[in-house]
Specification:
265 residues; mainly alpha; 5% strand; globular; binds zinc ion
């Protein structure tokens, strides 16, 4: 398959901070996740589809019908987009994230004898995959559950990785799981853990035994602006901060003690 790369300022030309404070409480997390990313990414692909005469544009579904919160990429939104002769398809809505690894990716590796390089990370410029952020940890955990070596798929872990994940799953505030979307995807992994593991890849057997009975939603923290977060004094401080002009916010962020305080709230 031919791969095309697009360089974009999609994240920069919209000032997401004020949008997060104004709309975050109606969404599960951020403006980007809850509203912008689906239409934004599809819009970026539109010129290529016309130039290369592509008739159907597939965007991988984020969630299944069990996900009941607002999300910026959904079959009710994406499937209604079209331009020229191009139709958009919200693909594989019937399979959860873990089921895609089990029924699509694992078959691909078994039949093709080839490990694909995956890019899951939230970091945009620093690392290819950091192997420590929530999305990397979630992807690695899902792969290992299916006995797929993440180090062959673009990640970097060792036998202590699942101690790190366990410590961060139980951390609550500042830990790995911070909003309903993350509760949803980790619960999906949980549901697919068998009663008895058939492997112990990267010392994972004990971790999965523990994860099966772990209360994911009880241990979730609360993201700054989220449908699940109550408006408290911290929320008000963020609201005032993000209502300042962008230049003023940049100047404040340069003052290290204040920046540190904002990050710790
Ligand atoms: Zn990462």
């Amino acid at each position: 398959m031919e791969i095309n790369f697009i360089k974009t300022n999609l994240h920069e030309f919209i000032d997401e901070g004020p949008l997060n404070v104004d709309f975050g409480r109606y969404l599960t997390g951020s403006w980007w996740g809850g509203f912008h990313h689906g239409i934004g990414i599809l819009g970026l692909c539109a010129p290529i589809t016309v130039a290369k005469h592509i008739e159907a544009l597939l965007i991988a579904a984020s969630c299944t019908r069990e996900f009941k919160y607002p999300w910026g990429s959904h079959r009710l939104i994406d499937n209604k987009l079209s331009w020229g002769d191009v139709k958009v398809v919200h693909d594989c809505y019937e399979l959860s994230r873990q089921e895609k690894i089990r029924y699509v990716l694992k078959n691909y590796i078994t039949i093709g004898k080839h490990y694909p390089t995956l890019r899951s990370c939230y970091s945009r410029f620093r690392d290819f995959n950091c192997s420590t952020c929530e999305k990397c940890c979630r992807t690695i955990t899902g792969l290992v559950l299916e006995n797929i070596d993440p180090n062959k798929c673009g990640f970097s872990i060792d036998s202590k990785f699942f101690d790190f994940v366990k410590a961060n799953l139980t951390k609550g505030r500042g830990g790995l799981i911070q909003d309903y979307g993350e509760v949803f995807v980790w619960s999906d992994i949980q549901r697919h853990i068998p009663k008895a593991m058939s492997h112990n890849l990267y010392n994972s057997e004990e971790f999965f035994r523990w994860l099966r009975d772990f209360d994911v939603s009880e241990n979730a923290g609360k993201r700054k602006f989220s449908i699940t977060r109550k408006m408290d004094i911290t929320w008000c401080l963020f609201y005032v901060y993000y209502k300042l002009p962008k230049n003023a916010r940049k100047a404040i962020a340069r003052l290290k003690p204040i920046a540190k305080l904002l990050m710790s709230l």
